[in-house]
Amino acid sequence: MLLLSAGNVNDITMAAALVSAVGPIPRLLADRAYDANHFRQLLAEIGAEAVIPSTTSRKRPIPHDPLAYKDRNRVERMWCRLKDFRRVATRYDKLARNYLSGALLAATCAYWLN
Asked: How far apart are the C-alpha atoms of 54 and 44, rounded to whole Å?
């Protein structure tokens, strides 16, 4: 599932909507940008394990599963593959619906080529 937000918005602002739209999940792999108490609480409420490393500003780091966290590179590779498509990487489109359509087409092509 893809949700589109403004370019100057933090990713964590859309995280709650994505998690609720996806349905039940056993665990969520995310980077340090998603290390917020309110997001961890949301994951605990739905019964998902948070595999999120703590930010360096935390006084007491929250432990995470480093072996499970290594699988996050698959997501990073997918985003790098999508950014190979110039239209997705630079966002020339003025309308959100046109950009989202281009991103979905790029995702389809990337999936088909692999």
From this structure: 16
Instruction: Please determine, for residue 31, whether its predicted confidence score (pLDDT) is greater than 80.
Output: yes
Domain ranges within the chain, ordered by starting residue:
1-68
Q: Is the dihedral of CA 15, 89, 4, 105 positive or negative?
A: negative
The pTM of the full predicted model, rounded to 2 decimals, is: 0.77
- Say how far apart CA 13 and CA 10 lie, in whole Å: 6
Are the CB atoms for 39 and 15 separated by under 8 Å? Answer: yes
The identity of residue 26, as a single letter, is P
- SS3 track for 49-114: EEECCCCCCCCCCCCCCHHHHHHHHHHHHHHHHHCCCHHHHHCCCCCHHHHHHHHHHHHHHHHHHC
Distance CA 72, CA 31 (A): 8
CA distance 102 to 86: 10
